[in-house]
Write a structure and sequence with these properties.
Strand content: over 45%
CATH architecture of the largest domain: Beta Barrel
Largest sheet: 13 strands, antiparallel
CATH superfamily of the largest domain: AttH-like domain
Number of domains: 2
Structural class: mainly beta
CATH class of the largest domain: Mainly Beta
Distance between the termini: 32 Å
Shape: globular
CATH topology of the largest domain: AttH-like fold
Order of helices and strands: EHEEEEEEEEEEEEHEEEEEEEHEE
């Protein structure tokens, strides 16, 4: 994409320079990709929908992504939502000396907590404030990345954010204990790995991200709008698999729609009640629709900033927000104008909104 200042890196020269293959993904790609120096950051993410109705998110991060200029400041995040309505959220900082991350494969440790795997089989062990979790994740959909996985920003392409969905979908076995109350279950999980060398709020205005499964289909979908200085350039990302086999991931074939846009009362951001990704090739059309039921979280990022950093953020008029939704994913397959099949299931997706609110054109239902 010559001539734009925000784009996915997808040229042959990009692949060669980054040492990547178009056809295969290697275990080292899920290993440490930064040196933890000032300006860089990375995190390893896992989430699961569990058969007992619980939803689990675990994140191992070397820094707070809102402030990558700081030195190594490890964080561990746990979100656990139970079917009975109980919600647990733990975000703990750790000393720099309690962090390690291997370079040749995923093996991340913070304190006594560990996230390790080889693109196919993963094990995660977490113990924090009365909650312990043990997870195994076995990949079903093969590792995937959008082109090189790198997004470059700026005329000199010096600013970068990268993303590797190491396990787009996998089988989970999990046990979790809350103050001595033990649960054992199975489920469906997902793992990705992200890193970069510039704070996201400096390059991204807003970003919808979702993953889900319904019937034989698995989907990863994201629509990134670059920051104003990059002319709000859109970067769509999409992967669709059927029966664990990739059937579509060309961003040129994707269109994105929003419906039911409302202003969230807590964050004052425009939020789409429905987001839709339409993937077309030849006479085939796949329509993936996420419809919100309720929020898991709607947070102003400044509320987590303390002291002098909070004052600086207010002076800079920073009003970033993070919203996480529960609802339904519907995946429909059309040939020409004929509907062949439709599948629905529960899904979770999110919106990160770093820029100031702007008017969004809706698509009428």
């Amino acid at each position: 994409m010559v001539g734009t200042s925000a784009a996915m890196a997808d040229s042959e020269a990009d692949y060669q320079r980054l040492g990547l293959s178009r056809t295969s993904i290697e275990p080292w790609e899920d290993g440490a990709r930064t040196d933890n120096s000032a300006g860089t950051y990375e995190w390893w993410y896992f989430d699961a929908h569990l058969a007992d109705g619980a939803k689990l998110v675990l994140v191992f991060a070397n820094k707070d992504i809102t402030d990558p200029k700081q030195p190594l400041t490890p964080q561990l995040r746990l979100n656990l939502d139970l079917a009975d309505g109980r919600h647990f959220e733990k975000i703990g900082p750790y000393p720099a000396g309690e962090w390690s991350s291997a370079e040749d494969h995923c093996d991340v440790r913070v304190g006594e907590n560990r996230f390790t795997g080889d693109l196919h089989h993963y094990r995660i062990e977490v113990r924090v404030e009365g909650i312990s979790v043990q997870v195994t994740l076995d990949g079903e959909v093969p590792p995937w990345r959008p082109s090189t996985g790198y997004m470059f920003f700026g005329a000199d392409r010096a600013l970068e954010f990268a993303w590797l969905p190491s396990v787009p979908q996998g089988a989970v076995t999990a046990s979790y204990t809350i103050d001595g109350e033990r649960h054992e279950t199975t489920g469906v999980g997902y793992h990705d790995h992200n890193w970069g060398n510039v704070a996201l709020m400096k390059i991204v205005h807003d970003c919808y991200w979702a993953r889900g499964q319904a019937g034989p289909y698995s989907v990863i979908a994201s629509y990134i709008t670059a920051a104003e200085k990059f002319e709000f350039e859109p970067i769509p990302i999409f992967m669709l698999a059927r029966d664990n086999v990739l059937i579509g991931d060309d961003p040129a074939n994707v269109s994105f729609e929003r419906e039911g846009v409302y202003t969230d009362e807590r964050t004052d951001k425009p939020v789409a009640a429905t987001t839709r990704y339409i993937y077309r090739y030849s006479d085939e059309r796949y329509v993936v629709t996420f419809t919100r039921n309720h929020d898991l979280s709607a947070d102003r990022m400044i509320d987590g900033v303390k002291g002098i950093k909070r004052i600086a953020a207010k002076l800079a008029h920073f009003d970033g927000a993070y919203l996480r939704f529960v609802g339904e994913v519907e995946i429909s397959h059309f040939r020409a104008d004929r509907l062949l099949e439709t599948h629905k299931d529960e899904a979770i997706w999110e919106l990160m909104y770093f820029g100031h609110a702007m008017q969004v054109q809706q698509v009428a239902p």
